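WARN no homologs supplied; continuing
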Amino acid sequence: MQSHGVSVCVEKLNKSFGSNHVLKDVDLEVLPGETLSIIGPSGTGKSILLRHIIGLETADSGRILINDEPYEKLPRNYRSSMVFQSSALFNSLSVAENIGLWLREHRIYPEPRINEIISEKLAIVGLEGKEDLRTSELSGGMKKRVAIARSLAMEPDLVLYDEPTAELDPVTTDELAETIMAVRSRTSTTTIIVTHDLNFALYLSDRIAMMHQGRIVEIGTPQKIKASENPFVKSFIRTTTKGINGP
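OK structure emitted
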């Protein structure tokens, strides 16, 4: 298997839960191999948008295209993965068993090759030699890195991160950022990150999209976002970082 970064096109996406209109005519384009972060206050629809992109939710209207194709027309070898906020590891399994679970279930490779892949992915996330640890022995940051390694074992074309820095201290957040940067340097995968952590997004992203009340109100490079005159962006920067200086 080999991953190939894909384009993602979201067109006029709408989603309501009862009377709560969560996504409102959302338009978004992500380029192949790009790392794009979606930022914004809690409750503005970021994670719901992510769940639509990976196919866990069905929109009321609008559509999502991957490489200009709807989901039902994607090739069988298209793969996407999601790193959940909770990491979603199986407590009863070891690190290696968590990472190799999908490969074993789908019988992608013989066992010796699966073990090689597990070691390769652990090396990428800086956890060499941790195959036999139990989930209960892992710190929060290590759990996130194991979850990333598990997603990489699929050789995905698209990786989605839902609030990856949640409940992490600043030092562990920096380590996680370096892990994601290492993944970027060694794969061609397209990456979409939902985060409330603006500094994390500024450091990692090729572009950043700002959501407010179910809409994307600004999108651009980190430099453009920092210099934005959009009142919602300026307010978010002011309240989350107490201001950002410099270009």
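Residues 52 and 121 are 27 Å apart (CA to CA).
OK
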